[in-house]
Amino acid sequence: MTDTEAAADVPTPGRPQPSGPPASRWSALVARVRRPGTPLGRHLRGLVIGAVIVIALLELVSPFRVSQITTLSYYVVACAGLTLLTGINGQISLGHGALMAVGGYTTALLLPAGLPFLVAILTGAVAAGIVGIIVGAAAAKLHGPYLAGATLALAVGLPGLALAFADTLGGEQGLTVDVPRPPAWFADAHFFLFGSDPSTTQYLAYIGALVAGLVLFLLANLHTSRYGRVWRAVRDDEVAAELAGLRLGRLRVLAFVVSAVCAGLAGGVLALATRLVAPSGFTIVLSLSLIAAVVIGGLGSLTGAVLGSAVIVFLPPLVTGLGARAGLSDVQAAELAPLTYGLVLVLVMIFAADGAAGLVRRLGGRLRRRQGPGTGPPRSGHDAAQESDDAARRTS
Amino acid sequence: MQQFLDLTLSGLSQGAIYAAFALALVLIWRSTRVVNFAQGAMGMFTTYLALLAVDAGWSYWAALLLALGSGLLLGAFIERVVIRPVENGPELNPVIVTLGVFIALQALASLLFGAQYRSFPAPFGLTGLQAGSVNLAITPYGLFTIGAVLVTMIALVALFRFTDLGLRLRASAFNGEVSRLLGVPVGRMLTLGWALAAVVGSLSGLLIAGGELVWPAYMDPLIVYGFVAAVLGGLDSPAGAVIGGVAIGLALSYVSGYAGSEFAGLAALLILVAVLLVRPAGLFGRATVRKV
Amino acid sequence: MTAPERRSERPAPRSTAPPALVVEGLTATYGPVTALREVSIPTEPGRVTAVLGANGAGKTTLLRTISGLVRPQAGQVRLGERDLTGAAPETVAGAGVAHVPEGRGVITELTVEENLRLGSLLGRRRASGRGGPARGWSLDDVLELFPAIAERRRRPADTLSGGERQMLVIGRALLTEPDVLLLDEPSLGLAPRVVTQIFAVLRDLTEQHALTVVLVEQNARSALEVADTGVVLALGRVVAVSEAAELAADQALRHAYLGF
Ligand SMILES: Nc1ncnc2c1ncn2[C@@H]1O[C@H](COP(=O)(O)OP(=O)(O)OP(=O)(O)O)[C@@H](O)[C@H]1O
Ligand SMILES: [Mg+2]
C-alpha cells in the first residue's frame, strides 16, 4: 500500500468527509467547528481571532509598525514552511532564502506583464515548488550535515543566476517591483468600515496578513493530518517508519515541496513589501535568519514559527536602539541583532531545544500543575546509557 | 592554451586553500561527527586579529603566528563550551549550534572591526612570474600558498602517523569508548582535534585574504567550496579532502575563466549534487550517507 | 620491582602485593530499567571470578559499571585504597583496571600494532607512575604470546579473524599493565579449541601476575573450568556465589540458570 492510497482511504480529521449532500456536509463542518477539541475547529477559530487582532492592529498602529507587520507576515510564511520541513520532518534547509528568491523574482517578472499580483505571487510559489521538487529529490537522500551543506550551497549558488542572466534578472541591481494600488472595492470596503482610505502600506500589510493567515491555517491542518503524523514518524525513527511501509523518499520530497511553496509565497510578498528583488536581498543571512527564527521559536511548532518570526522582525530595532543609546555607531548597533540571534541560537540548543514555544508550553503546564514527570522536551532523544556516558565524560 | 595553463595554475593555488579548509572540516567531522559551519567565520575572525596586529606594526609572520595561535584557542573554546553539550543529542543540534556561532562571530567581527572592506597584506609579490618571455599566472604569493598548505599537511600527517599523541587523537576519533577504556582522555583529545582543525581553518582564512580585501563575510563562499571539496573527497578522508580541494579549485577556476565568475557558486552546487547523487560517500569515503 | 634484565624469558612476576578489587552493592539503571540491584562479587588477586547468567542478566552492565562506563546509583568500586565509584573510564583504566568490552573492542581503523601501542602507552604511564622503570610486558612479549597476530602486526585490525581479534584485545589489555582484567564474553563466536587455548593462557597469566580477573561468560561450562569462583546473575541480582567447582556440580542451579 502506498502512502497516497493510505491517505485516501483513511479519514483525516482535518478534512470533511466527502459524503452526503452539501447541506449536511456544511452542518457537519459547523458541528466540527463548534465542538471544542477538533483540530479543524481550533484552527478556524484561531484564524478568525488572528484576523480580528491583525485588522485591529493594522488600523491602529503607525505606518512604520504596519510595514513591520508586512515584514512579519512574509517571515511567518517562510518560517511556517520551514518548520514543517525541519521541525516536523527533520530535514534542515539552509537554502530557503534561495527559494524565496525564486518566488520573489518570478513575482517581479510577472507583475509588469499585467498579471494580477495574486496570480503573480501564486505563480512564484509554484515556481519555488518546482525548484523544491528538484532540490527535495536530491535532499531526500541526505541527512543532517550533508543536507545542511547542500542547501547552503544552494543559498550561495542560486543568486549567481541573477548575475549570469543580468539582462532579464537585473544583475546586482535587481528588479524593481511595481506595487499594486489598492483596488476600488478594497478602498470602498475599507472606507465603509473604518472611515478612511487605506494607504498602500496598509494594503500590502493586508495582503501579507491574508497570505500568512491562510498558510498558517492550511499548515496547521496538515500538521494534525495523517501526513503530519507520518512526517513526525519519519523524523523520529526512520527505520521503524520504513519498516512500517512508509515511502520515506516521497514523504521527504513532499515535505520539501510544501515548504518550498511557502518560501515562494513569502518571496512574493517580500518582493511587494520591499519593492525590489536583488541578490543582496537573498543572501545566506536571510536563510540563516529563517533557521534562527524556527529554532528560537521552537522546532516543530507553528506557534513557534510565529514567535520566532516576531523575534527576528522586532528584535533588531529594539537592540539597535539599545546599542545606539549605549554609544555604538548606527552601523555597529545594527550588528547587535545578528549577534543576539547567534548567541540565542546556541543557548537555545544547549538549554532548551524546544525553543520559545516549548518554554511557553512548559510554563503554561507548570501554571496549570499538569506537568507530569514524563513530559519533557520532545526532541532531546538521549538514551540513558548515552547520558551516563556523557555524564562520565564531562568529568574528565 | 595559454589561458588553460593560467587557469590551471591559479586553480592550483586556490585549490590548496580549499584543501586546507576542507581538511579542517574533515578533522572535526572525523572526531566529533559535526560539520563545523562556523569554520569560515572562525578563520575570518582570526584573520582580522592578524590584520590588527599588522596595523599595530607587527610583521606579517608574527601576525600569522598570532592568527594560528588564536585559532587554536578559539577552536578549543568552541568545542568545550558550545559543542560538547549538544554532541550526543539529535544530529541537527550541533549543526544549528555551529550556525549560531557563525552568525554571532560574523556580527561580532562587524561590531569590533567594522563592516567595511579592508585590504590584507601579502608577504610575497602578487605579479605573475616570468618564464622566458611568457607571463605565468602563478605568483610568488601563490607559490607561498601552495607551500604553506603542503607544509601544514606534512606536519599533520607526521603528527597523526608518527606520534603517540597522534595515535591517541586517531583512536579517540574512531572509537571513543574503547579509547577511554585504554586510558585515553578522549574529551581532551576531541578538544585538541577541534583546536588543530581551527588552526588549519585559520591558515586558509589568512591565505585567501593575502593581497585581497577582507570584510566580515569574505569567507562565506569558502564554506561552501570547502564543504563541497570535503564531500567530494568523502567527509571521513583527510587525503580525500586535499584531493577534493585541489579538484574544486581547478574546476571553479575553469568555470570562472571560461564561463564567468558568477557561475562559480552554481558550479559548486552542481558538483556537490552530482557527487551526492552518484557517489554519496565521496571519492575516497567508505561511510554510507543514509544509514537505513 | 624486580626486572633489571627485562625480556630475558617471560616477564618477571611482580613482587609488591597487588591491590584488591572491591565490588560492593552496585545498583545501576538505564532510565526506567534497573539492570543491577545491589550486586557484590568476590574477587582476589591471582584468581578468576566467573560471572554467569542468561541474556540480559546484567553481566555486561556489571563490567561497564566497574570500569566507569555506567555510573552506579549506589554501591562501591574500590581498587586497593582508591575509590573508583563513578570515576571516568580513563581514570579507572589508569588505576589499573583493563576492561575488554563485549564485541571485542578492536579499533578497526588502526593497525594491529597501533592497537597494541595504545595499550603500551597506558602501561608506560602506569609503570612510571609506580616509580619503577620495569614494565611487566613489552609489545614483543605479547607478540610472542600470540604468534598469530605477530605476523599481522602491520595490517589494519579489521582484517583479523574473530580469534585473532580476541588475542589482540587480550594482548592489548595486558600491555596496559593491569591489576584487574575484566573480560566480557571472550569466547563469543570462537571455535572451542581457540576458547580452550585462550582460557589456558588466561589461567597462566592470572597466576603468574597475580591478576584479578572477572570473566563474564555465556559459555558457563568452560568458564567454570577456568574460574576459581562463580557468581550467577539473574535479572540484575546475584542468585548464587560459590567455588566454581561447587557451582558446576550443583545440578539444580545449572538447569535453572546456566543451561547445561
Ligand atoms: N544502553 C541500554 N539502554 C537501556 N537498557 C539497557 C542498555 N544496555 C542494557 N540494557 C538492559 O539492561 C539489562 C542488562 O543488560 P546487559 O547488557 O548487562 O545484559 P547481559 O547479561 O550482558 O546480556 P548478554 O548475555 O545478552 O550480553 C537488559 O535488560 C538490557 O535490556
Ligand atoms: Mg553482555
TrEMBL record, chain A:
Keywords: Cell membrane, Membrane, Transmembrane, Transmembrane helix. It is a multi-pass membrane protein. One of its GO terms (cellular component) is plasma membrane. It comes from the Bacteria. One of its GO terms (molecular function) is branched-chain amino acid transmembrane transporter activity. The keyword Zinc-finger does not apply. It is found in: Cell membrane. Residues 1-25, 367-396 are annotated as: Disordered. Residues 380-396 have a biased composition (Basic and acidic residues). The keyword rRNA-binding does not apply. This is Branched-chain amino acid transport system permease protein. It comes from Actinomycetospora cinnamomea.
Automatic annotation (TrEMBL), chain B:
InterPro entries: ABC_transp_permease, BCAA_transport_permease. GO terms for biological process: amino acid transport. Pfam families: BPD_transp_2 (PF02653). It is a multi-pass membrane protein. GO terms for molecular function: transmembrane transporter activity. Keywords: Amino-acid transport, Cell membrane, Membrane, Transmembrane, Transmembrane helix, Transport. It is found in: Cell membrane. GO terms for cellular component: plasma membrane. The chain crosses the membrane at residues 12-29, 36-54, 60-83, 95-117, 137-160, 189-209, 215-232, 239-257, 263-284. It comes from the Bacteria. The keyword Cell membrane applies. Belongs to the binding-protein-dependent transport system permease family. LivHM subfamily. PANTHER family: ABC TRANSPORTER PERMEASE PROTEIN, BRANCHED-CHAIN AMINO ACID TRANSPORT SYSTEM PERMEASE PROTEIN LIVH. This is Amino acid/amide ABC transporter membrane protein 1 (HAAT family).
From TrEMBL, chain C:
CDD domains: ABC_TM1139_LivF_branched. Residues 21-260 form the ABC transporter domain. Keywords: Amino-acid transport, ATP-binding, Nucleotide-binding, Transport. One of its GO terms (molecular function) is ATP hydrolysis activity. One of its GO terms (biological process) is L-amino acid transport. Pfam families: ABC_tran. Belongs to the ABC transporter superfamily. PANTHER family: HIGH-AFFINITY BRANCHED-CHAIN AMINO ACID TRANSPORT ATP-BINDING PROTEIN LIVF (PTHR43820). This is Branched-chain amino acid transport system ATP-binding protein. It comes from Actinomycetospora cinnamomea.
